[in-house]
Amino acid sequence: MAQGQLIFISGGVRSGKSAYAESVVRAAGSARKVYIASGQAYDEEMKKRIERHRLDRFQDGWHTVEQAYRMESVLEKLQPEDLVLWDCVTTWLANELYEGWETGNMCADQPGCMEEKWNRLQQTILALLDTVNLLTVVSNEVLDDFVRDELYQSWLGRIHIWLVQQADQAIEMENGLAFRRK
Predict the structure, then answer these.
(1) What residues pair up with 64 in beta bridges, in sequence order?
(2) For the chain, what is the mean pLDDT?
């Protein structure tokens, strides 16, 4: 089986990353378009935003998979030759790193917890590339992200470096313009 292509797209908040990623997937062919969304609704505003995105994606012909945690669960929902967009790494990382905050038992505070999740994510991405034709991954730039937590930024940087190493293309978005870095 041929390995799928990985395109990594990063940039600041509201830089045009998601719209650009969607256009990349649309241009990739007529196979099923799958949108992996990592957002969670913690308040009424976010619930409305997620619902609006769901409707927009449905109207645009996307098959949406909502996966806030445990990305390995998406593997069973994908088909060979799918064109996949994952939006986004930063949201997934916050979900996983701070999982358990409600009970005071965060992953970030448990030795080895995030390392285990990171290992599973790496294996999942490699498995995705063995299955799908295209995996487009969106993420915020480390210093442009809204979270100012040293541990979070360290993990995000580590994840980005690995993704770029695996990627066929790495694109940085700035003010709606795409700059190819790899």
Answers:
(1) 35
(2) 88
DSSP string, 146-163: S---HHHHHHHHHHHHHH
Cα separation of 150 and 6, whole Å? 28
Please state, in angstroms and rounded to a whole number, the distance separating the CA atoms of residues 48 and 72: 27
Identify which of 64, 91, 86 has the alpha carbon closest to the alpha carbon of residue 7: 86
3-state secondary structure of 9: strand
Residues shown for the chain: 182
For residues 96-103, give the mean pLDDT: 87
**Rounded CA separation 9/18 (Å):** 8
pTM of the model: 0.89
Residue appearing with tokens 């916050």: 94
